[in-house]
Structure formats: C-alpha cells, structure tokens
Amino acid sequence: MGNTLQKLPQSSQQQELQLHNQNAHAKPPQLESEEGEFTCEICIEPASERLRNAGRCSHPFCTDCAARYVRAKLDDGGAVGEIACPAIGCGEALEPAAWVGKELFVRWCDALCEAAIMGEERCYCPYRSCNVLIVNECGGIVRKSRCPNCRRTFCFECKRVWHAGFGCEESAEARDRNDLAFGRLVEQNKWRRCPRCRHFVELAEGCRIVKCRCGISFCYKCGKQVHQHWCHCDRTSLCCEWCFRVSILVIFIIFAFFLLSWETRTRKLTPTT
Predict the structure, then answer these.
(1) What is the three-class DSSP state of 35?
(2) Which residue has the higher pLDDT, 263 or 123?
(3) Signed CA dihedral, 14, 15, 16, 18: sign only
(4) CA-CA distances (angstroms) from residue 16 to 13, 21, 27, 140, 149?
C-alpha cells in the first residue's frame, strides 16, 4: 500500500484550530507588562498609567508623579525651556502632552515660548484682561504700540498703558479724566512741550525754532533745546546753518581781501629813503 495522510479525528482538528487562533491573538509578554500595572520608581506605588514621552523614551513613571515633576521645574525656573526626563542617565527632553492637565500644559507651552525668545526684547500687555507676551520684532526704540490680541495701545518703553501727551516718567502719577482727555488732545494736535518749563506750545505757522515764554528756544519737530536758529533734525534748518556758515566765510574772505588791498596800497604810497 502507498503512503497516505491519515486524517485526524474531528474533535482533534477543532482543538488544534482553537489553539492556533488563541496563539495568533495573544499579545507578547512585554506588551502585557507595559500596559498592565507597574511600580512607579518615584512614588514606589503600583500604577496603571505609564508616562509616554512621544516615543522618545519610556520609563516606569506614573503620569501623576511626572506631572508633579514638571510643575516643580516650572515653579523653580520660570522660563526653563526644555525639561529633561526624570530618569537617571536619560538625556531626552519631555514632550508637552495632555497627561499634565490643561492648566499645566498651557503654562508649560508658555514657558517654552518665552525661553525660545529669551534674547529678544519683550513685554506683556499691561491690560489685566489680556496680559499676552509681545515681542519687539521691528528693532530699535519702540514707544507707542498696539497689542495684537486686544488691539489696545500701550507704551513698550515703560510697559504701561499708553500715556498720551505725557512722558514715561510722568505716566506713573495719578491722573484724572481731564488729564487723560487733555493728553489725547495733545497727541491729536501734535503739540510740543518746552524742555525746560514743560509747558505745551502750539506752532500755528512759521519757523520750527520756537521761543518759549520761559526764554529758551527749542525745535518744534524734535523737542530739543537749541542755542542757534537751526536744528540737525531738519533739512531746512541744516540749509540755514550752512547758509550762515557760508555767509560768515564770505564776509571773512571779503574782509581779508580789503585788508590785504589796503596794506598793499599803503606800501605803495609810503616813500622810500
């Protein structure tokens, strides 16, 4: 007789098929141990929610201990930038995720943003209902600015609410509604203040070099005190300055020419012995 395959009994075939299906759907022992309960190395308590660091690293820390660790780092450092994994010898940085809670997550992201712009000039919106972080992207000296969030104006130099018509050193003083209204009027009409007596002056027409009632002269364009009838901030004033200098030079040359001519003529008229 030839060799033939012997059929297993029906009950044996069913048992083998069930065993094969169970082995196919069974999870590896490593995954079962990761998703099951474990002992946190920080609190030394059994836990079920393991810290997942966006695939960078995985250590037996519970999310509650990791969240307290992040909160402590933020309380100590403020703008700490990246927060390292609490595991000893692990150099990976923790990734902000929802396991820290909504409030701590927002605070963590703000700290990362603030650390990223540490070298830039920045301030916070002085209005309490806004208080967002604003960065000086234009460079240079910035004073009157508009908050991109609440669209209200403030002074970037003194970090206070915009003080129309008054300087930064005066904005801290208590002012009533009349002062604020007058300041807006000053800003609207572009009035200037005397650098000595601090009174406001309005230029209706004429030269930009004005004389205040206190006796000094100042430039209506830049507000600086001047001792001549020109200022270096204006081209028209510079023309006046150069015209004045050229006039002085021409007068000096003419005077020297007449003096030389008179001396030559005197020598010719003087008899020689």
Answers:
(1) helix
(2) 123
(3) positive
(4) 5, 9, 19, 80, 68
- Which one, of 35, 89, 28, lies nearest residue 57 by Cα? 89
Tell the burial category of 108 from Cβ atoms under 10 Å away from its Cβ (0-12, 13-18, 19+).
buried
Tell me the three state secondary structure of residue 58. Answer: coil
**Coil, strand or helix: which one is 189?**
helix
Please name the residues in contact with 20: beta carbons below 8 A apart, sequence gap of 6 or more.
Answer: none
CB 230 within 8 A of CB 223: no
What DSSP character marks residue 62? Answer: B
112: tokens are 């990362």
> What DSSP line would sit under 194-253, residue for residue?
-TTT--EE---SS-SEEE-TTS-EEETTT--EESSS--TT-HHHHHHHHHHHHHHHHHHH
Phi, psi for 25 (deg, rounded to 5): -90, -5
Q: Please, which pLDDT band fits residue 3 given cuts at 50, 70 and 90? A: very low
Residue 38 to residues 47, 48, 82, 123: CA-CA distances in angstroms? 6, 6, 27, 45
Q: Residue 229 corresponds to which tokens in the numbers above?
A: 């009838």
- Convert the pLDDT of each residue in 45-90 to its tens digit: 888 888 888 888 888 889 889 889 988 888 886 556 788 888 888 8
CA angle (22 as vertex; 18, 23 as ends), nearest 5: 120
- Residue-wise pLDDT for 205-235, tens only, equals 878 888 888 888 888 888 788 877 777 776 6
